[in-house]
Design goal:
The chain is 39% helix and 17% strand. The model has no long low-confidence stretch (mean pLDDT 95). The chain has one domain: Leucine Aminopeptidase, subunit E, domain 1 (3-Layer(aba) Sandwich). Strand 3 and strand 4 form a beta hairpin. By secondary structure, it is an alpha/beta fold. Helix 3 packs across helix 4 and helix 4 crosses helix 5. It is globular. The termini are close together. The chain contains five helices and six strands, in the order E-E-H-H-E-E-H-E-H-E-H. The structure holds ligand AR6. The site of ligand AR6 has 25 residues, from helix 1.
Length: 178
């Protein structure tokens, strides 16, 4: 793996526990908080996150699929939460890859704009939104690696898997870059 890609780490665990500059949330278009990782982040982060989401919802109508917005980390150890909205899998690849890739690209761009150096991602869209885990992992890793080609400021990217299946897929895919 080139030194650039050594900053990518895969772990299994709960993203809300990480002490890091920013964690990424797999949110919904209305930034309402929901189930899955979104629910866990809002529960652990508290009202401040929900309040900032409300301001974003009222000022710009929430967050479009593939886009990203930023709030405080509230009570979390992380300073910021970057909320991005993955695509809902509809059984066809067409267009879906671009939306999911944009989630990673736009979250990283927002991170750089906010001087964030360490960031953790969940496996966006692979829970309630039903995206195939292997395809989602391929998109996540290839987009991140592409982004890192021109990166000068991000120092660590942690890919957080909640289940063994995603963890094993990510570990295998990353090993291909070794
Ligand atoms: N830490 C890390 N990963 C987690 C955690 C956690 N604490 N909890 C779940 N995951 P999902 P989506 C994993 O469903 O598919 C919400 O209702 C989970 O195992 O959270 O993008 C939103 O409001 C899976 O691998 O997000 C939206 O409506 C991954 O996080 C909708 O769900 C993503 O699963 C978004 O669905």
């Amino acid at each position: 793996m080139s030194t650039k890609y050594k900053i990518i780490e895969v772990i299994k665990g709960d993203i809300t526990k990480l002490k890091i500059d920013a964690i990424v949330n797999a949110a919904n278009n209305g930034l309402f908080g929901g189930g899955g990782v979104d629910g866990a982040i809002h529960r652990a982060g508290g009202k401040e996150i929900a309040d900032e989401c409300k301001i974003i919802r009222e000022s710009r109508g929430g967050c479009k699929t593939g886009e990203a917005v930023i709030t405080t980390g509230g009570n979390l150890e992380a300073d910021y939460v970057i909320h991005t909205v993955g695509p809902v899998w509809d059984g066809e690849r067409k267009g879906m890859e671009t939306f999911l890739s944009n989630c990673y690209k736009n979250s990283l761009t927002l991170a750089v704009q906010n001087n964030i150096e360490t960031i953790a991602f969940p496996c966006i869209s692979t829970g309630i939104y039903g995206f195939p885990k292997d395809l989602a992992a391929e998109i996540a890793i290839s987009t991140i690696i592409d982004f890192l080609k021109n990166n000068v400021s991000i120092k660590k990217i942690i890919l957080v898997c909640f289940e063994d299946e995603s963890f094993n897929i990510y570990k295998f895919l990353l090993s291909l870059y070794n």
